[in-house]
Amino acid sequence: MSKVVGILGGGQLGLMMILEGRKLGVKFLVHDEDPQAPALGASDGRYIGDSWMELVNRSDIVTFEFEHVNPSAIKMAEEDGKLRPGSLTIRLKQDKIIEKSFLRDNGFPTPSFMIINNVEDVNRAIRRFGRVVFKVPRGAYDGKGQYYVMNDDDANRVPREFPLLAEEFVDIHREVSVILVRSSDGHVLTYPVTENHHHNGILLYSISPARIDDETANNARELAIGLANTLDYVGVLTVEFFVTRNGEVLINEFAPRVHNSGHWTLMGAAVSQFENHIRAILGMPIGPTELLKPSAIVNMLGVPYGDDLIRRVLMIPGTSVWWYGKTKVKPRRKMGHVNIIANNMDELGRRINEVLGVVYGNEISRYIPPWDAVESNDSRHALTTINSS
After folding, report:
1. 146 is an annotated ligand-binding site residue
2. Which whole-number Å values give the CA distances from 36 to 6, 212, 324, in the listed order?
3. Is 354 annotated among the ligand-binding residues?
4. Taking residues 46-54, what's their average pLDDT?
5. Which pLDDT score is estimated for 139?
6. pTM reported for the whole predicted model
């Protein structure tokens, strides 16, 4: 009889998990509060609102595709011995202060930070760090809830809602991530380090392999494996890093799930992050993670579906399109992505730029405005393109 996996959360990560996991003969049940969530339409069983209990009961294993899912469903699945990975990872991820404190307390390198409880602490952080990033601890993602203070005059940007996390502003050379898969017996495989490029705080495109030296890449991999072992993790884990201009490798945050920066594995690896997650949580052998060809993804953010758009993207050699089927188009919303492969890094860079040009033209911030301009959508910037540095 086929194994049944219950997925809490019905977004695009769940959708791709289902599409990649079906070749293993697995059946999937999905719960989401939104009846139009993309993964619901691809599932073998739809559960909406308060119906999560039936999903847990009918599943052999329960997993999640993002962190902010029904806590009662998580609790029940864990008590039944079905939850993979465990609930500790969700508790850590739901509050940036708790996450950063856990990393520090377990010896992992992070940017220097302070916990802010009042206005005096805001001023103290500015005096200590000079340049500071203040972060709302809960509900902030993709650049939302972050406030950059580069001098004393910027202090009034910081919300007077506490607590906040204050981090020293890092002089970044590269932003990279490590996607790994860990089995229940502790066997770990890592995908090649991925290089990530953001626009207005949200991931625009990723490249694998990252353009960093071997020592830096090995350092990032070792830290990611160390974190997975510390968490006794089962499944796919993503760890995001800052590589500073003086060569430090600092953990920015982690994601206890498949991740946007790992979408390149759909074409660039023999076994994708999505299939490997299903393999790991079901106790199947995990598959190879080696890079087959230089690979990339470009996110399609806030872009409405169009036959001509898809056709023009697919005319670029080495591309494929994943459209998520979301019903509403909003600025910054992840509507789909483009996978890209090439024979070498120069060719990959050219193809990334071609895709960016087709998807966004020269008005990228029409689709990806800053958070504070989402409503007015009046920001315009030139297209961000890849360079060889």
Report:
1. yes
2. 17, 41, 11
3. no
4. 95
5. 76
6. 0.95
